[in-house]
Write a structure and sequence with these properties.
293 residues; alpha/beta; nine-stranded mixed sheet; 42% helix
Length: 293
């Protein structure tokens, strides 16, 4: 039946039996006969034939649309199975924010690895622009990132969580006793950003123009270094999260960062290209989404 479905798709796509026959390398009478056999097996008509012309029946139109998905899934399944049979190493490349720490992601990675032990998970760390470029150029299959741009139709844009913004301060800093702060109230305290040398200017621009940070900017190579800088009293670290409780003890306090009387929030998303929606991509996305739910 799969071969007959392919013939049917070709006829609809070309809007012609003769062109479809040429595309499929069989005679016009043979392709017509194969579609009649398909209709007999299905038990309903796919096409209404009128002399040399035809049109899809309502059932045929529905069947055609669904069959496109069916054949695409079948081809993907065959490709993945062939890789397993050959012993090829399947790799799922996931971009992850260097400054982010999410237990949900860790749980999803663990569950996916247990379910698909043959799939090698490759984590690629970077800042927002690093990850965007990886996704754009095909260097990553999926990217976990904060939303900094309007959503693009080229990608699947899955919002995992809307996180509130906080600043992390040394507990001994008097500002740490406030119930919340604004960017104006912390303008005299340096702001610590996690960024590579190549991305420092981009990160600075974002926090200046979008978040409204007015402080002097300091940089750390990773999250651990940034928190050591916070503990030593060098400045504050802007972070996103679901609440003030963290596991790093009493040396650091989290204070909500507000603007206009409300706490600033940002979307945390999973992105992947629509033309790269392979089975393992969507499976990992489903697992991760459930963790955040």
């Amino acid at each position: 039946m799969l071969r007959q479905i392919r013939y049917f798709q070709s006829v609809v796509r070309n809007n012609s039996f003769s062109q479809a026959a040429e595309e499929c390398h069989i005679s016009q009478s043979a392709i017509s006969q194969q579609i009649k056999i398909l209709e007999q097996e299905l038990g309903f008509s796919l096409l209404e034939r009128q002399n040399r012309k035809f049109r899809l029946t309502p059932a045929g139109e529905h069947f055609y649309k669904k069959s496109l998905v069916l054949i695409a899934d079948y081809e993907q399944m065959c490709s993945e199975a062939a890789k397993i049979a050959r012993g090829d190493e399947a790799i799922l490349k996931i971009g992850y924010l260097r400054s982010h720490n999410s237990p949900e992601v860790h749980q999803a990675l663990e569950e996916f690895s247990e379910k698909y032990p043959r799939i090698d998970l490759q984590l690629l760390y970077g800042n927002h622009e690093d990850l965007f470029n990886l996704l754009r150029t095909g260097g990553a299959d999926l990217v976990l990132n904060d939303q900094r741009r309007a959503f693009s139709d080229e990608y699947v844009n899955l919002i995992l969580a809307t996180n509130k913004m906080y600043i992390e301060l040394a507990s001994r800093n008097p500002v740490a006793e406030l119930p919340s702060v604004t960017v104006q109230e912390i303008k005299n305290i340096p702001c610590i950003l996690v960024a590579s040398k190549e991305q420092q200017a981009i990160e600075k621009e974002f926090y200046r123009t979008i978040i409204g940070i007015q402080s002097e900017i300091l940089y750390a190579e990773n999250l651990e270094e940034a928190r050591l800088m916070v503990i030593s009293g060098q400045g504050f670290l802007p972070v996103e999260g679901s609440g003030p409780t963290m596991a790093f003890g009493a040396s650091i306090r989290r204070v909500p960062l507000c603007r206009g009387g409300e706490q600033i929030s940002r979307n945390y998303c999973l992105f992947w290209k629509k033309d790269n929606s392979g089975y393992y991509v969507e499976e990992f996305a489903d697992i991760l989404k459930k963790k955040f739910e």
